[in-house]
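Renewal narrative, Specific Aim 1. Our central claim is that a sequence can be written position by position from structural information alone. The example that follows is taken directly from our test logs and has not been curated for this report. It begins with the structure tokens describing the chain, in the order in which they were read.
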């Protein structure tokens, strides 16, 4: 037979068998579909080489009136604001001791462990505390060692905890025989709010609470300090409002500078019945209300907040006054209660409304002015949100992930046909579903959905699927990203991730590499092909590839990828590799010899290519592959 041109169907499809998906793709990693063709995705590089404490599961950007651009990062351990190439710790302080309330004592000579005593410290292991005013213990543990920000290593009891002594560069310092002092009578401790966890908990039980809480056999209620730490945040003018889920509401004031901490809003002068607990905060920009989802209600006497989250209650401030939450005839403060579902999961702003998800429903909230201020309409019942970050706003609507499918909201809720439906929802680790998140990549008309995989077994985000909303195609792969934000700089996305044990922010669609290394394990694999419905064997003797290599600006690698030809005689057989051929920009054809009833094509990165520089700084894009094949009998 003559050469046969193969133009594959766009999108990865795992809903069909490999043979019934003839002419399509069945597996992929680090590729996208654009204009009906497959291409390697863009690379990523660290935005700055400075790391930070904790996984960042929340990102937000805003610009001050004078043009300064900020990035807010809420991590499992702290809250940071990035300005330029520096991260500034603005984590709220929960308690400040009086001078002399804190004392130190070495544990042993040659040991870095220091006992810190403060009556009723209220800290948990992993919390952070800063000391000032301390004097030397008499030896290696001097004032410079003590007067720093420390992460609490362990809890001894309700009055004592331990830290591991370090110098200002973070190098461990051990106690000497002369370290017999207690730090003097002027030490002040500033305790940051309790840290959260890296694991989502669905219930209460032994080991949930802090050391010393409760009695033997008792349970601890879930709270912001023993639950997966998820931050929500929104800017109110130039200032930033932040909230650890189920925790307090805090404000960082831009005019006060980056060396100041966020302060609990209910403690600010002039605050009146400001909620003290929340599941999420967001601002209504056109009408200037601060909206609190899952607020703690006002007590029956109308004098204070209860301090306990009401998971179906929405409260909102007076217009133009985020400190006034008491509903009065003379203001627009008030509240609304949802009825469908058991808890508010998340909310987001769209062009003309705020939409709010519960675990089983979607509501629309619109500003209508006094006396009701906001209207509330039930849009859909039966489809909730799988996690508080599992949605993405796009020019085409709001895309989101439920417990069993992907949807779009465009005034009504519609389910997205998904060729990876079972692949995702049979593999998602539902015990950690609150870690799921989604992000927009507007340049390529894509929404990326990230989820923890049962098959991976880590309980952490490891996999993603990509939906191209202009071409209605899906792709897939593996990548650990904990938060995603589109259009941070130069209209490119940024995302938080990990390298080794350190946490970083990455610029995506930047170059073609995995940070400083080549992007490896890039591939796409086809479904099975046959001739005459497999009635005859097929003989293949050459393949003529059609691949475009695109080098990064200023780079000139001798890039190449592999074309792998696989074969089998029936669908029940395992695939075996017939040949692996290298393809470069100058490759005219690949001579092969294969005889089988079914065959598969796989295009993959050549991860063994040498020198190392030739594996980097290029992308590739598939065109129309031509194959010289002919019938070769029935047996």
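The sequence written for that structure reads:
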């Amino acid at each position: 037979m003559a050469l046969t041109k193969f133009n594959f169907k766009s999108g990865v499809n795992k809903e069909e068998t490999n043979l019934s998906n003839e002419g399509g793709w069945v597996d992929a990693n680090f590729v996208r579909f654009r204009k009906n063709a497959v291409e390697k995705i863009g690379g990523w590089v660290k935005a700055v080489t400075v790391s930070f404490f904790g996984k960042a599961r929340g990102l937000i950007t805003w610009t001050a009136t004078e043009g300064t651009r900020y990035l807010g990062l809420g991590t499992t351990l702290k809250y940071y604001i990035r300005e330029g190439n520096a991260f500034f710790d603005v984590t709220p302080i929960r308690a400040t001791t009086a001078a002399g309330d804190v004392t130190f004592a070495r544990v042993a000579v040659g040991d870095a462990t220091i006992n810190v005593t403060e009556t009723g410290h209220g800290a948990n292991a992993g919390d952070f505390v800063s000391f000032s005013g301390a004097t030397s213990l008499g030896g290696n543990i001097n004032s410079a060692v003590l007067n720093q920000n420390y992460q609490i290593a362990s809890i001894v009891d309700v009055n004592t905890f331990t830290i591991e002594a370090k110098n200002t560069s973070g190098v461990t310092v051990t106690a000497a025989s002369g370290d017999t002092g207690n730090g003097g009578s002027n030490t002040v401790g500033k305790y940051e709010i309790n840290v959260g966890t890296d694991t989502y908990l669905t219930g209460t039980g032994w080991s949930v609470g802090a050391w010393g809480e409760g009695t033997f056999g008792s349970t601890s209620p879930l709270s912001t300090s023993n639950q997966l730490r998820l931050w929500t945040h929104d800017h109110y003018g130039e200032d930033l409002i932040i909230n650890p889920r189920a925790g307090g509401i805090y404000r960082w004031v831009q005019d006060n500078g980056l060396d100041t901490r966020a302060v609990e809003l209910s403690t600010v002068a002039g605050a009146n019945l400001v909620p003290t607990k929340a599941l999420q905060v967001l601002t209504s920009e056109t009408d200037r209300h601060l909206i609190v989802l899952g607020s703690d209600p006002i007590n029956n006497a109308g004098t204070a907040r209860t301090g306990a989250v009401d998971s179906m209650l929405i409260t909102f401030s007076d217009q133009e006054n985020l400190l006034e939450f008491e509903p009065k005839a003379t203001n627009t403060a008030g509240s609304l209660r949802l009825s469908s579902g058991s808890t508010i999961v998340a909310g987001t702003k769209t062009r003309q409304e705020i939409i709010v998800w519960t675990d089983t429903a979607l509501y629309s909230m619109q500003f209508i002015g006094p006396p009701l201020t906001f209207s509330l309409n039930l849009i859909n019942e039966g489809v909730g949100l799988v996690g508080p970050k599992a949605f993405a706003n796009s020019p085409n609507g709001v895309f989101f992930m439920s417990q069993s499918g992907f949807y779009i909201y465009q005034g009504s809720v519609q389910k997205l046909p998904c060729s990876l439906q079972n692949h995702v929802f049979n593999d998602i680790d539902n015990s950690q579903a609150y870690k799921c998140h989604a992000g927009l990549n507007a340049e390529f008309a894509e929404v990326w959905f990230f989820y923890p995989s049962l098959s991976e077994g880590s309980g952490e985000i490891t996999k993603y699927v990509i939906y191209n909303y202009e071409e209605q195609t899906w792709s897939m792969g593996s990548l650990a990203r904990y938060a995603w934000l589109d259009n941070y700089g130069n209209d490119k996305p940024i995302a938080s991730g990990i390298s080794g044990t350190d946490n970083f922010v990455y610029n995506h669609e930047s170059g073609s590499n995995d940070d400083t290394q080549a992007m490896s394990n890039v591939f796409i694999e086809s479904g099975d092909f046959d001739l005459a419905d497999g009635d005859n064997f097929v003989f293949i003797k050459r393949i003529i590839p059609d691949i475009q290599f695109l080098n990064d600006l200023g780079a000139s690698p001798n890039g190449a990828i592999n074309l792998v030809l696989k074969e089998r005689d029936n669908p029940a057989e395992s695939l075996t590799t017939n040949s692996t051929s290298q393809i470069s920009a100058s490759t005219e054809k690949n001579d092969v010899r294969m005889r089988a009833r079914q065959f598969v094509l796989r295009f993959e990165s050549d991860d063994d290519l040498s020198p190392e520089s030739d594996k980097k700084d290029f992308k590739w894009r598939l065109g129309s592959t031509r194959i010289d094949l002919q019938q070769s009998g029935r047996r």
